[in-house]
Structures are given as structure tokens and as C-alpha cells.
Amino acid sequence: MFTTMLEGTAEDWGHIAREHGRHQVSAAPQQIMESLRRLEAIEVGFGANQLAHSLMTATLARQDGATTEEVVAALCHDIGKLMSIPNHGAIAAEILKPYVSDDLYHTIKWHQDFQGKYYYEYLGKSGDARDRFRDEPWFATAEKLVDRWDAPAFDPGFKADSLESFEADVIEVFSKPKRAM
After folding, report:
1. At what angle do helices 10-38 and 167-174 cross, to 10 degrees?
2. Helix or strand (DSSP H, E) at 103
């Protein structure tokens, strides 16, 4: 094994690539599940903490017949709030990027502007922020995620599926990158 990348051989890099692959299959889904659990501590003024909200969003997606990839994106759409609330969409999108379609990547990245329809005007911003994306191929996906699954998911009385019920979906999506990271 080398001590500087300047000395790496094809054999070294082959070994490293295999180890990365093994790590990806086991560690990434586990890290996502642990991160989702940490969302429980984030309330930020809503009637439900961010884990409960994420579970509601994913449950609504599941009940609506969403694909596994869509359900996992719905579950993880606010995971970026662990790092930065103002930038949470972009952070979550980058976490999901290697594993989901381009449409879902853009949907998660810009979902807050789609939510803006419901509250931006109260904060002195334009409530039609989503309209700038109207010609994007992912617009309908973003509307579906926000309007049907995300926006209604703040009811503390809603019976959401458990985090554990999503574990197989998280493992399926986060074990198989669709593109290089």
C-alpha cells in the first residue's frame, strides 16, 4: 500500500476500489438510517419533529404508489437539516445524487422553492418561486413530492409507518449507486 497517491499502482487502486464497494453496501444505508434517527431532535417550530415529518412524507409516498426510489427520496428530503436548514435541500440532494434519477435529484434540491407556494408570501418572498422551473422535465415530480407528500406531512396525529419499515428500501437504494460519486 502506498503512503502517497503519487506512488499508487493499478493493484493498489484495484484494492481500494473493491474496499470502497464493500463499504458502500454496508455503511451507506446504516449511516442514512442513523442520520434519519437524529432528525427526531429537530423541531424548528413545526407540530412534528423532522423525523416524524420525514416518516409521514415517506408514508404518504408509499400509500400513493410511489417507486422505492421516490419513497426513499421522500424519506430523506430533509436530511440536510442535520447540517444546515437554509441549505437543506441542496445537501439532501447531494447525498441522494449517486443513487436516484436526475429528476429526483433536482426535485429534492429545489423542493423548498416548491413549498414556497404555501408560505413564501408570509416571509416577503414570491409565492410563485416554483414557476421558474415549469419547463424542467422534473417539474411534475417536484409538484408531486411537495404537494401530495411533503406539504400535508405535519399532522402529529397521522399514523406514519415506522422508520424500520423503510430500512429495506434504504438498503436497496443506498447500496447501488447509479453513477460515480
Report:
1. 150
2. helix 102-119
pLDDT per residue over 93-102, tens digit each?
A: 999 999 999 9
In a domain, 180, yes or no: no
Residue 105, domain CATH: 1.10.3210.10
DSSP for residue 123:
G
pTM recorded for the entire structure: 0.91
Domain range holding 36?
A: 11-174
Backbone conformation region of residue 49, classed left if phi is above 0, alpha if psi is from -120 to 50, else beta: beta
Q: Which residues contact 11 (CB under 8 A, 6 or more apart)?
A: none
Closest CA relative to residue 136, chosen from 173, 115, 100, 111: 111
